[in-house]
Specification:
By secondary structure, the chain is of the alpha/beta class. It has a single domain (3-204), classed as Flavodoxin domain (Rossmann fold). Helices cover 43% and strands 16% of the residues. It is built from nine helices and six strands, in the order E-H-E-H-H-H-E-H-H-E-H-E-H-E-H. The chain has helices at 19-33, 49-53, 56-64, 73-78, 95-101, 105-109, 131-145, 159-162, 182-204, and strands at residues 8-13, 37-42, 81-87, 117-124, 148-149, 168-171. Strand 1 (8-13), helix 1 and strand 2 (37-42) form a beta-alpha-beta unit. It is globular. The two termini are 16 Å apart. The structure holds flavin mononucleotide. The site of flavin mononucleotide has 19 residues, from helix 1 and strand 4.
Amino acid sequence: MTADTAVNVAVIYYSATGNVAEIAREIAETAEKAGAEVRLRRCAELAQRSAIEANPRWAQHAAETADIPVAVPADLLWADAVLFGSPTRFGNISAQLKQFLDQLGPAWGQGLLKDKVYSGFTSTASEHGGQESTLLALTTSFHHFGGIVVAPGYTHPDKFADGNPYGTAHWSGGGNTRPVDDTTRRAARVQADRVVKFARAVKTA
Ligand SMILES: Cc1cc2nc3c(=O)[nH]c(=O)nc-3n(C[C@H](O)[C@H](O)[C@H](O)COP(=O)(O)O)c2cc1C
């Protein structure tokens, strides 16, 4: 690959109990395989320690991912494409991802977020459960950035299996009884490949 076609991809996510983190890893690995330079970053935790410790799975996931660097605005400035992931919270994104987005005012004011490729992914406990409203809410910010929204759509047979044209969306089940499976992983790969393809096209245009 020449320097002209090299693209930087940031995968920035929040995950309490690990489902969104698993999708983020799949997307990061796929983007790397597609030739991108990748930064996998987690959003800073905002919840009180007592809330985390009251949920063993949340506490375990927090401990297991402590070594993943926390996302900073500079990660966006570096990136040609950014994939954001969040669990669905009452049909919307998590406070932790929103807090990250809310740090981007100065970069936005300088026009530094525009012309990048953006895409999103999520996980819910219920089937559907607000996945589409979450992804569309996230997309609103992409428009404010002046970003190029790259949704997976139904561009690949695997997208008819996970069924969400707005982004990769997993159904984790109540009590996390449905771990991230092949259906979700295949959808994540479609999305990552598509984002890298368009980021490269934009960069070389
Ligand atoms: C405050 C709160 C709100 C939630 N809202 C929804 C919701 O609207 N729909 C849904 O299906 N699941 C909802 N969930 C469940 C999570 O979205 C779901 O468990 C998700 O898979 C967790 O992802 P994670 O393992 O990456 O943290 C909610 C969970 C919490 C704690």
